[in-house]
Amino acid sequence: MQNGQAPWSAAKGRKIHGYVSSLDGSVQPYGVTVPDSYDGKTPARLYVWLHGRDQTLTESSFLFKFPAPNKGLTYAAADVGQIILDCYGRWNNANHWAGEVDVFEAIAAVSARYKIDPNRIVLRGFSLGGAGAWHIALQYPDRFAAAEIGAGTYPRRAYMDGFPPYQAGPLRIWENIIDWSLNAFNIPIAGHDGDNDTQTAVIPPEPGKPHRGQLESSLRVRAQLEKEGFPSEGEANNWRVKGTPSIFLISENTGHSISPLVRQRIDAFLKEHGDRGVVSRDEVRFVTYTTRYNRAHWVTLDGLEKQYERASVEASRNKDRTAITVKTRNLTHLTLRETERTREARIDGQPLKIKPAAEVYFAKTAGTWKQLPKRASELRKTHALQGPIDDAFLGPFLLVKPTGPPANAAAHAQAMRIMARFDRVYARYYSSHPRMKNDEDVKPEDFTKYNVVLFGDPGSNRWIRRIAAKLPVQWTKDRVTAGTKSFDAATHLPALIFPNPLAPSKYVVINSGLTLDEREYHSDYAMPKLGDWAILPIKEGVEFPEPVTARLFDESWRIRE
Description:
Blueprint: H1 7-10, E1 13-20, E2 27-34, E3 44-50, H2 59-65, E4 83-87, H3 98-113, E5 116-126, H4 128-139, E6 146-150, H5 165-174, E7 189-194, H6 215-227, E8 232-235, E9 238-241, E10 247-251, H7 260-276, E11 283-288, E12 295-296, E13 299-304, E14 311-317, E15 323-329, E16 331-337, E17 344-347, E18 350-353, E19 359-365, E20 368-372, E21 397-401, H8 409-430, E22 436-438, H9 444-449, E23 451-454, H10 462-467, E24 473-475, E25 479-482, E26 485-488, E27 492-500, E28 503-510, E29 533-537, E30 549-551
Parallel strand pairs: 3-4, 3-5, 5-6, 6-7, 7-10, 15-17, 21-22, 21-23, 23-28
Antiparallel strand pairs: 1-2, 2-4, 8-9, 9-10, 11-14, 12-13, 13-16, 14-15, 16-19, 17-18, 19-20, 24-25, 25-26, 27-28, 27-29, 29-30
């Protein structure tokens, strides 16, 4: 290094690298396999691998084990000159929360070190990694040339009754891959598993039906695609979904794995679509339940009539891209791209003359669509500004610790217990203490750089005091008021998320970290518990008290009575 040499950078084979996460400032490891054919000049395709469950996995074991070749059938794919990225993904979380961010940060890190073709990135995962791959592929369907998804656990809670609306709504984002199945229209997916998979079926089989283990995931996605109007055709255990680029295969006489025959078929599928690269189709069929996951190729859903209810777009364009037809559901704002030659559109049957541009924007008011000169900027829920509280932790964030005298000592102490619990649990499972500053050390640029998380009360934290009047939940020395409900500030404190009045493109969070149960940091799915805002009781010795009330803001960030 003193001689300016880094021979490991040019070495071929299996290597460990790392990157600094923008999420929390931590150093995260990833593995990379560089083929002998890589010359650093020709852009290489990239295969991204999401690992299965391994309760003994740690950063150190990942670093130690990776250089030894993994010859498991689920991992090994045919060599077509690809670089392979192994994501660590913050342990075992099916690539949710910090594990989701890790996928894209690791891809960016590899792309900075090696010459990667951004249109030929392929996503792959099996078992727990299959669960992560279902989530990533169906909610980011324009990021990858193809996806291979083996097995994958299947969610239960999104289809159970008994959850209040502020919990049931967000469950439709992270625990219902089946309801996102239509997005396989936009990305070539190869779903597969063995017919004798004995892994636990999260949803038990129907009476009289065989136990299919994690094969249930691809079976149910394929069944949902048929309900959406895309039936399967082909021979038994080797189906193509008509009208989509996706296939589903079953490895015969195979457990939780893949047979040589299916491996061969999927290798050919990945090569075919890797050769072709990401294709911007002339027809897009896209479904979402939140503006967090809101785009497919040239279509972006910028605003929903109601978050957590099904929103969809069917969009098509003619070959020369001069005319576009769009049918929407549960949508108020829409962006179309690749529209430099577009001169007319028909949205929900309404004809519109279009001024061509690289992007064109539309808003619906009282049932009528209108082109806008620029993206609408009023206070409303839109991408990465739609909640719930936990959404703030999918972007770079900063915890702000109070240093002033509390307005209410008990509320301040409860806020400190919540902060300490989040710091401890996040560090335990995501291997990094969150970045933190005292309120007196926070600079104006921090608000434009981070989602800021303010702890304390209007007395102890100067930033809570500064923005208090601009928040929808009012907090004084005596009362906490949310809409028509009022609570004694001596025994209650608020937790909430809101567009930051000091930097409207970022969040401000008051008195909450991730709202997940601790055990869910390392489970397949993790449920946000508090919605957008909650009133918490002050309970001495309790780190994370159950809310007295919790709700979701409406689409304009107002309290729903």
